[in-house]
C-alpha cells in the first residue's frame, strides 16, 4: 500500500511565487509514495488560488478572511488528515525553501527514526538572510533549546514533515504563528524530532509578513503559555511509516529513475 504524503502550503498573496513552488515538488520519487498538494489560502486577495490550480495543486482550502499563519498551519494539519494523509508536509509558499529536497526530509520517517522532521537552514546553506533576521532566528531557536533541554539548530523553519500521529496530536495555541509552539508541543509529547540540512534562499517576490513588534509581542507570550500547559505523553508508533529495506542509496537510486 502506498503512503499518501500531502504537502500543504500556507499562502497569503503569493501569486508570484506559489506556482514555482508547486511545480518543484517531487511527485514520483518512490513507488511506495503518493504525493498530493494542498494549498491553504489565507484570504488572499491576489491570484494565488488561480496560479496554484494552474500549477497542479490537487486541493485548495480558502479562508474567507485572513486568519494568520498559525491558524492556516493548524488547518493544514487537520485538513490533510481529513483528506487521508499518512504523512503531512508543511512548506512555505514563498519559494524560499527547497521543495526538491522533500525526499530527504521524508527519509527519517521511512526509516523509523523520527516523527517530526524540520528542514534546517542553519545546518545547511543560507543565501540572503539579513543580519537582524539571522539574530532573531538564533534567539528564538536558543530559547526553544533551553526550554526543551535539547539542541535545535533552526526553530523557525518553513519546511517540516509530520507523521500521522504528529499531525493528529500537534497543537498550535495561537493563530498568529506556529513555528515555536508546535515544536514545544510535539517534543514535550514525546515525538522524535530530527533536523535535515536544507538550502534556503530569501524571497525575491512578495512581502514578508514578519513585523518585529507584532512577532515578539505575539510569539513570546504564546511560548510561555505553551510551556505552562500540561501535556500528555503520546505512545509513539515508532515504525508507522517505515518502508521496508529503504536505505539512502536505494532511495536515491529509485528517486533518480
Ligand atoms: N496563513 C497565512 N500565511 C501567511 C500570512 N502571511 C504570510 N503567510 C505565508 O506564510 C509563509 C511564510 O511567510 P513569510 O512572510 O515568508 O514569513 P517567513 O518566511 O517566516 O519570513 P521571511 O524570513 O520574511 O520570509 C508564506 O507561505 C506566506 O505566504 C498570513 O497572514 N497568513
Ligand atoms: Mg518566508
UniProtKB/TrEMBL annotation:
Lineage: Bacteria, Bacillati, Bacillota, Bacilli, Bacillales
Species this chain originates from: Guptibacillus hwajinpoensis
InterPro entries referenced in this protein's UniProt entry, alphabetically: Glyco_trans_2-like, Glycosyltransferase_2, Nucleotide-diphossugar_trans
GO molecular function: transferase activity
CDD domains assigned to the protein according to its UniProt record, in alphabetical order: DPM_DPG-synthase_like
Full protein name: Glycosyltransferase family 2 protein
Keyword terms: Transferase
Domain Glycosyltransferase 2-like: 7-168
SUPFAM superfamilies linked to this entry: Nucleotide-diphospho-sugar transferases
Transmembrane region(s): none
Amino acid at each position: 500500500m502506498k503512503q499518501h504524503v500531502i504537502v500543504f502550503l500556507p499562502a497569503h498573496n503569493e501569486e508570484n511565487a506559489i506556482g514555482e513552488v508547486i511545480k518543484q515538488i517531487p511527485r514520483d520519487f518512490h513507488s511506495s509514495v503518493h504525493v498530493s498538494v494542498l494549498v491553504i489560502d489565507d484570504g488572499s486577495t491576489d491570484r494565488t488560488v488561480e496560479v496554484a490550480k494552474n500549477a497542479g495543486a490537487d486541493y485548495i482550502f480558502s479562508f474567507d478572511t485572513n486568519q494568520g499563519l498559525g491558524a492556516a498551519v493548524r488547518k493544514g494539519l487537520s485538513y490533510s488528515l481529513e483528506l487521508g494523509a499518512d504523512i503531512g508536509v508543511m512548506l512555505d509558499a514563498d519559494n524560499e525553501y527547497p521543495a526538491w529536497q522533500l525526499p530527504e526530509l521524508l527519509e527519517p520517517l521511512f526509516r523509523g527514526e523520527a516523527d517530526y522532521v524540520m528542514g534546517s537552514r542553519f545546518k545547511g546553506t543560507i543565501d540572503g538572510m539579513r543580519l537582524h533576521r539571522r539574530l532573531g532566528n538564533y534567539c528564538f531557536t536558543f530559547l526553544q533549546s533551553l526550554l526543551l533541554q535539547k539542541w535545535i539548530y533552526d526553530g523557525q523553519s518553513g519546511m517540516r514533515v509530520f507523521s500521522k500521529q504528529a499531525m493528529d496530536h500537534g497543537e498550535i495555541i495561537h493563530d498568529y504563528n506556529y513555528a515555536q509552539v508546535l515544536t514545544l508541543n510535539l517534543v514535550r509529547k514525546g515525538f522524535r524530532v530530527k533536523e535535515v540540512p536544507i538550502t534556503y534562499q530569501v524571497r525575491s517576490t512578495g512581502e514578508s509578513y514578519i513585523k518585529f513588534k507584532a512577532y515578539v509581542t505575539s510569539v513570546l507570550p504564546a511560548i510561555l503559555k505553551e510551556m505552562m500547559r500540561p501535556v500528555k505523553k503520546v505512545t509513539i508508533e515508532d515504525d508507522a511509516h517505515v518502508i521496508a529495506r529503504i536505505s539512502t542509496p536505494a532511495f536515491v537510486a529509485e528517486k533518480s529513475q
